[in-house]
Amino acid sequence: MIKKPKFKIARRLGAGVFDKTQTPKFSSSSGQFGKGMRRPRALTEYGTQLLEKQKIRFSYGITERQLSNYVERALATKGGQSADKFWEVLESRLDNVIYRMGLAPSRRGARQMVSHGHFTVDGKRVTIPSMSVRTGQKIAIREGSKSRKIFAGISERLKEYEAPPWLIFNPESMAGEVKGVPEGRNAFFDLEAVLEFYSR
After folding, report:
1. What does the DSSP 8-state code read for residue 43?
2. Residues 121, 131: contact at Cβ < 8 Å?
3. Alpha-carbon distances of 111 from 119, 151, 154, 166, 179, rounded to whole Å
4. pLDDT at 146 over 60
5. What DSSP letter does each residue of 124-172 carry, written as one string?
6. 55, 76, 119, 179: least surrounded by Cβ within 10 Å?
7. Is residue 173 part of a domain?
8. Which CATH number characterizes residue 167's domain?
9. Structure confidence at residue 130 (pLDDT)
10. From 84-88, 122-126, 147-151, 181-185, the region with the lowest mean pLDDT
């Protein structure tokens, strides 16, 4: 688990790296240089690739080894679709799917919820946040967890939330499904730069 101060990391990597730093207030303050602060120097190609790698690591809360394994899987893809495969692998993590469904306020919160066994995949209780989910798999809040405080008022919360088109969640049954392959890559990440970093 990455535990470095979020605001310090976000000032270096960009406001989009964490949910709590994606605010107008943070964006405006992070662009100011006070007394004693040095302006960042222009990055080299290597520095840019390293920065992009760190964005993904901190955003998804994954280790260097996990990221390396994901890149290896992506680079093994035929047909020049490595970046799309990389995005698919990242987005298909169970903790991210829970987050994208709107069931957790952050990926870190989703990881904790999965680790505590609050969810089932195809009827089986799971506690591994990094588990990769596939199209057609059904994700549900475990029966014994439905009355927990963290899921109170979930129907009201999800009224104003729009999940990605490749996911669906029904607040009444407290169950959802992976309808397709993750799409709609986030412009905040330069996936090609990360792939190039590991291809050196």
Report:
1. P
2. yes
3. 11, 15, 18, 20, 21
4. yes
5. EEE--TTPBP-TT-EEEE-GGGTTSGGGTTHHHHHHT----TTEEEETT
6. 76
7. yes
8. 3.10.290.10
9. 97
10. 181-185
For residue 78, being part of any structural domain is answered with no
Sheet of 175-178, strand order: 124-126, 119-121, 138-141, 175-178, 167-170
Q: In the predicted model, what is the mean pLDDT of the chain?
A: 86
Residue 32, helix vs strand vs coil: coil
Residue 114's domain comprises 95-178
pLDDT at 33: 40
Question: Phi, psi at residue 193, to the nearest 5°?
Answer: -65, -40
Query: Is 155 a member of any domain?
Result: yes
Query: Distance from CA of residue 143 to its chain's centroid?
Result: 26
Coil vs helix vs strand at 85? helix
125 - beta bridge partners?
120
Q: What is the pLDDT of residues 2-45, one digit of tens each?
A: 455 665 665 666 655 556 555 555 455 554 444 444 555 677 98
Question: For residue 183, what pLDDT is reported?
Answer: 86
Query: With 70 as the cut, is the pLDDT of residue 90 above it?
Result: yes
Number of structural domains found in the chain: 1
Element spanning 121, H or E:
strand 119-121
